[in-house]
Design a protein that fits this description.
By secondary structure, the chain is of the alpha+beta class. The chain is built from three helices and five strands, in the order βαβββααβ.
């Protein structure tokens, strides 16, 4: 059974940069990442800027990102075998 990795905000931002997201703004401890799809749709993700994110927060970010990126592409970054 795959296990969710314990990731930091820096690691998650690096993952999403590989998929074309850029760091747009930061307000307090929340970082807004955005990319524009080929169809012109703005795709936005919010990541809390913490050293280690809770597993529930990491899972929520993964689920939200699956709206824009294939789960098969994201899976190896978020889960360990």
């Amino acid at each position: 059974m795959p296990k969710l990795k314990r990731l930091s905000a820096v690691e998650i931002i690096a993952i999403f940069k590989r998929f074309g997201f850029i760091r747009l703004t930061q307000r307090g401890s929340h970082i807004k990442l955005r990319r524009v799809s080929k169809a012109g749709e703005k795709q936005t993700l919010i990541v809390p800027d913490h050293r280690e994110l809770d597993t529930g927060t990491t899972r929520a970010i993964y689920r939200q990102a699956c709206r824009y990126i294939s789960p098969d592409d994201l899976f190896p970054y978020f889960f360990s075998e």
